[in-house]
Amino acid sequence: MLDFSSLLLAAALSGICLSVTMFAIWFTAPKAGFVLTVACGILVLVAHVILFWQYTKDPDPLLCQIVLALLSLGFLILCVSAMQYLGVSGYRRAVAPALAAMAICAAVTFLGLDGVGFVVTYTTVTALLSAIGAMFWINGSHDRRILLVVSFLSGTCAVSFALCGVVLLTKGQWALGAAPDNWAERLNSVVAVACMTGLGALTLSLHHLQAQIELKAETMTDPLTGLMNRRALTSLYGERSFGPFMSVVMFDLDHFKRTNDVYGHPVGDQVLCRFAAVIKKYARTGVDAFRLGGEEFAVVMSRMTEEKAHDLASKIGVAFGTEIVATQLGKLRSTVSGGIGFGEASGRTLDDVLAGADAALYAAKRAGRNCVIGRTAPGKAEPVKPALRSA
């Protein structure tokens, strides 16, 4: 049977190994800032364990304050790392109460009520661990099984700290004069080592998942405009059946090759980005924009009638016609042509709708460009309100 000192040594050794692993991961992937935060939090907890071990050998009031402060601070940093990973804003909501609790703990410990200080600290840690578990379960967007394990481990560790505080409360140990040593403390040492090791391993898994998500986002995003690309269009809508309230608008910038030849490719890139910015202004739920390649774009519209689809496509064309790009040869105003492909009550594939949109786009080109064409009746296509023409 391990004695209390051996349990503390195991906890410190486990924490050091975890922190070294986290630092190594962060050095290879500096963008994973939450991993660095986790490593720092674990190091603070390792410092707590080492000083707590010293406190068990040589109790000192000042050392007691430092030990309790490090315990709260370590879990506060871990809580911040969870918020950082999950994208939860408002760190102050966790930091301010924790710092206030640390100040209260320091005050009562200074007055000789170190038992109360331990209770306050255990309560703070319990709240922080509970918050970590709740945040992962509520805000997590990854595999729910992994998130459930994270929440379970955080909750289990929180319960072990809560038991330590409850034992001190039930025994009325307001002034200890030494480190608490009871069944709850020993249980907490075992549980904390197991849970922190498990959470460390899960942190590696979550980092791997985040890296996969970021890689997928990069492969699905056009690097110039920030819009989704053709691969994303196929991924999102390749298996969808397009009903009567779904449509695709294909846009093609007018005379774009001439723009590149006369003004240069950097100006051409600016024009592409301007058009992407115009599309983003009209983006909302049910409207997804894509750059298919070159000067070709697509907008998928869901839960929208044909009339509203016409109206939105026309507004995009008109808005882009007002955009002016400053060049060394003077002001440049560009236009865009568009064609709309519609779904049907019986359902159509993405390829069929794109083929319809492509045919309508060519009709818009033949009609003189700078307009959007879509059908107004089966087998009939007419131009929609034209956009502003180039100056």
From TrEMBL:
Which top EC class applies here? transferase
Looking up Gene3D superfamilies in the UniProt record yields:
3.30.70.270
> Which chain regions cross the lipid bilayer?
6-27, 34-54, 66-87, 94-113, 119-139, 146-169, 189-206
* Keywords, ordered alphabetically: Membrane, Transmembrane, Transmembrane helix
* Reactions mediated catalytically: 2 GTP = 3',3'-c-di-GMP + 2 diphosphate
- Ranges for domain GGDEF come to 244-377
Superkingdom of origin: Bacteria
Species this chain originates from? Mesorhizobium cantuariense
Q: Which InterPro entries match?
A: Diguanylate_Cyclase, GGDEF_dom, Nucleotide_cyclase, Rev_trsase/Diguanyl_cyclase
This entry's Enzyme Commission designation comes to: 2.7.7.65
Name of this protein: diguanylate cyclase
Give the matching Pfam families: GGDEF
Q: Does the keyword Membrane apply?
A: yes
